[in-house]
Specification:
CATH architecture of the largest domain: 2-Layer Sandwich
InterPro entries: 2-oxoA_DH_lipoyl-BS, 2-oxoacid_DH_actylTfrase, 2-oxoacid_DH_E2_comp, Biotin_lipoyl, CAT-like_dom_sf, E3-bd_dom_sf, PSBD, Single_hybrid_motif
Number of domains: 3
CATH topology of the largest domain: Chloramphenicol Acetyltransferase
Strand content: 15-25%
CATH superfamily of the largest domain: Chloramphenicol acetyltransferase-like domain
Domain Lipoyl-binding: 2-77
CATH class of the largest domain: Alpha Beta
Shape: elongated
Distance between the termini: 98 Å
Radius of gyration: 40 Å
Keywords: Acyltransferase, Lipoyl, Transferase
Oligomer: single chain
Biased composition (Low complexity): 206-218
Number of helices: 11
Region (Disordered): 202-235
Number of strands: 22
């Protein structure tokens, strides 16, 4: 006796499944609970075990085909493997019914001489193969019955074309989709070799090997050169000793912490792009973001004198001018030349002084007084690609502002009418380290908010100086 194995319900709301791989073929023996077929659904990829023992008589659903829950996947015969060859598709638990009128013409010629009794169909599944009631047909007659009449009568007896004809060739099983994601394969560029153009696991694996070969032929990684200092020892330079002593003394003698804000400098970026040709023609200097940070900081220091002060014993000295030091990276170490009275300068003057002082600092041509008298410090860690850092305050100053790299990224913005949207904006982090002996967190936040507002307004047309 033959048994039909159907696609079971594999989870709540799961209505269909895709056969991804048959673990047995026609003629193979199978035991109870032995894995029979791999099936993939939107929620699970699993193996379907055989509910009965026997021999695989007929596989009704091919690999990469999608069928509904309850559809017959395979027919298993309880006999030996030899019985599988001549047997016609048999329906488990058949229900007798008269032959339907439309089905009579296709089977009339070959079946009429041998069938005088009603045909048997599966009532709920029109795709179930039809067989004559008289099962014990003589051996010479059986092959014509299975070869000719049954194939045209039952839609499934053909190579499952009617089942896949209504499926979507663009459907990709979860198993194949996950494999593609793990392998970095773009499924829109993969041509499926499955039925109806469906993408199979083998197609993804083939694309993966193609991707791997293309990667392997790309330019090889060139390692960074190994420093000659590696594995050596050397005494500290005088400058390094001074920096080390001052850094330690500052950290020991002051209570330092850092507050960070994020600033949208898109308008400044647009302004720079618009005025760059005229600015360079007038000054011979390229306009970057640093002069804007300088001017906004200097103006805010006028309103927040605590950050432009110093502590001497039990006295607080509020400085009358904004003399801003800025960090310059040199081969000898970090040096900080000073731009004096920065709040009184325009962008062209600040840009010119930055370029001049930075160049002479690297060439070791600065005068001693050009690195003295700073009341506040700016350090542009973004020039080396840093997002932000927590800079160290060097006494006798009480604050230092670090500017990170300007990056474009998606940001939620609010229009004048209150509508929110996501847009690509030029963003930067400003990190303010300060001495908590004098400056409270609220003081630092108020200062940063003023700097942020000045930069985001980008109202610098009157300050260009060209």
């Amino acid at each position: 006796m033959s048994e039909s194995v159907v696609l079971p319900a594999l989870g709540e709301s799961v209505t269909e499944g895709t056969v991804t791989r048959w673990l047995k073929k026609v003629g193979d023996s199978v035991a109870v609970d032995e894995p029979l077929v791999e099936v993939s659904t939107d929620k699970v990829d699993t193996e379907i075990p055989s509910p009965v023992a026997g021999v695989i008589e007929q596989i009704l659903v091919q690999e990469d085909e999608t069928v509904q829950v309850g559809a017959v996947l395979v027919i298993i015969s309880g006999g030996s493997g030899a019985a599988a060859a001549p047997a016609a598709p048999v329906v488990a638990e058949p229900v007798a019914a008269p032959v339907a009128a439309p089905a009579a013409p296709p089977v009339a010629a070959p079946v009429a001489p041998m069938v005088s009794t009603p045909m048997i169909y599966t009532p709920a599944a029109p795709v179930t193969p039809v067989v004559p009631v008289a099962a014990p047909v003589a051996a010479p007659v059986a092959p014509p019955v299975t070869a000719s009449p049954v194939v045209p009568t039952a839609p499934v007896a053909s190579p499952a074309a009617p089942v896949t004809a209504g499926t979507d060739a663009g459907y990709v099983t979860p198993l194949v989709r996950k494999l593609a994601q793990d392998s970095g394969v773009d499924l829109t560029r993969v041509v499926g070799s499955g039925v109806g153009g469906r993408i199979r696991k083998e197609d993804v694996l083939s694309a993966t090997s193609g991707t791997s070969s293309s990667i392997s032929t790309s330019a090889p990684h060139v390692p960074a050169p190994v420093s000659a200092q590696r594995g050596t020892s050397e005494p500290m330079s005088r400058l390094r000793k001074v920096l080390a002593e001052r850094a330690v003394a500052s950290m020991v003698s002051s209570a330092q912490l850092t507050t960070v804000v994020e600033v949208d400098v898109t308008k400044i970026a647009e302004m720079r792009k618009a005025v760059q040709p005229a600015f360079q023609a007038a000054t011979g200097t390229k306009l970057n973001f640093l002069p804007f940070f300088f001017l906004a900081t200097a103006e805010a220091l006028r309103s927040h004198p605590k950050l432009n002060a110093s502590i001497e014993g039990e006295m607080i000295n509020y400085h009358p001018t904004e003399n801003i030091s800025f960090a310059v990276d040199t081969e000898r170490g970090l040096l900080t030349p000073v731009i004096r009275d920065a709040a009184t300068l325009n962008l062209a003057q600040i840009a010119a002084q930055i370029a001049d002082l930075a160049s002479r600092t690297r060439e070791n041509k600065l005068k001693p007084d050009e690195m003295m008298g700073g009341t506040f410090t700016l350090t542009n860690t973004g020039s080396r690609g840093a997002l932000f850092d927590t800079p160290v305050v060097f006494l006798p100053q009480v604050a230092i502002l670090g500017t990170g790299i300007v990056q474009k990224r998606p940001v939620v913005i609010t229009a004048a009418d209150g509508q929110e949207s996501i847009a690509i904006r030029s963003m930067v982090y400003l990190a303010l380290s300060y001495d908590h002996r004098l400056i409270d967190g609220a003081d630092a936040s108020r200062f940063l908010v003023d700097v942020k507002a000045r930069l985001e307004s980008a109202n610098f047309q009157a300050n260009l100086g060209i």
